DNA sequence: TGCCGTCTGTGCGGTTGCGAACGTAAGGGA
DNA sequence: TCCCTTACGTTCGCAACCGCACAGACGGCA
């Protein structure tokens, strides 16, 4: 499969001033992002950062007993590997490709070079970090207070925003892992949404039929996160 | 009450190189931090950052229906108002003093001056940001997967780490608000810990009797967060 | 001394999600 | 074609937590 994607499909890269972008371009390497690919494990030193163009990456926390929970999702609006620029080198998270596609990757050495210049990349990533923090804290709140139905709506909408199509390739088992709930719970919640005519799913393929309907049903968490992303990282970029 | 605290009691300030610290010192203003004081509201522009010396500040998310949940706690190891340096100016959180004490505050203009130098303060705050992110994501996980007993242990230990004494002034009602659970639930959980001889509480005063016992009972979340703080922000600082 | 507000303890029914087990149906490969 | 894997649906008992209601218990104040 030829990679017909431009790095500019990643919103962060697109938002960079032309000179910075041109400086970085030779070092950006296109990579396939197959479903399930582990970009890094918890505690592992990061060797690359990834700028997704048409894939979705989940940040997961893996517990001692093996169960896991999704902390945040990253698509073409962001970057995977923030810990590199934060100075910690590692994170206690796992990053996994949740929806297959492509990305551009950049070696840690190159990234640090650019950071050291204290230029637009640093400022941009700071804003993105704040948006990501909002997403994480909203996840904490949502985990505590909202029903599985609503959380599923939130998750579907977050995924949808990061994809071109309204079709997700995702089994209920995987969704359950992401949300940190049982597979049976997802079966019921998805059944509710299907009965309401909002989605249609069939053996690992979910089609969103009525996006406005989902937005009516979702908890406030989704809008809060979306507003914060739009506020901090307007797209198309103003430059 | 005279303020006999030095800014150096805040670990971040203490970790700064002497020249940077001396440059900032004239602008640091001591402030009282009474219980319940709201440092900023959700969506409000930040006018100051605060470096706590002997108080604890909670970051809370307030939901549409008025209920709230704690996202993170900040004590003398950190700074309140990170959003200022991230570039967003506001956050969708509320910051409230959870345990009375003191802090040093710094106007937003002064902070930005220092950030612009791209110096040690920026690098230090980046590391702190990563530690805070760890705390937030661990909160998300803990909310989903662990029992109220364990969450209460975690909360007590996090608070204890940020205080000099083993005595907390805190009603069950307030703890319930922080944890986003019912007051009755806290009554039961605290009763369990009291029956186990780990704590003693009496009308808004909690005394920790057996800290190692709490650490045995707490979920993994506490240690993960603590390790990450120790790794990213060693104290005393190496300089 | 008596009253009132705050803080804590307890009980009850209802809901939600967990854990495990089992059934079914649709591909995919030999 | 048959078998086996994957994906989804359903059930049942169990535990945790919620919402509500109310009771006691302590402390400050008149």
Automatic annotation (TrEMBL), chains A, B:
This is Transcriptional regulator-related protein. SMART domains: cNMP, HTH_CRP. Signal peptide: none annotated. GO terms for molecular function: DNA binding; DNA-binding transcription factor activity. The keyword Transit peptide does not apply. Residues 12-110 form the Cyclic nucleotide-binding domain. One of its GO terms (cellular component) is cytosol. Pfam families: cNMP_binding (PF00027), HTH_Crp_2 (PF13545). It comes from Mariprofundus ferrooxydans PV-1. Keywords: DNA-binding, Transcription, Transcription regulation. Residues 146-212 form the HTH crp-type domain.
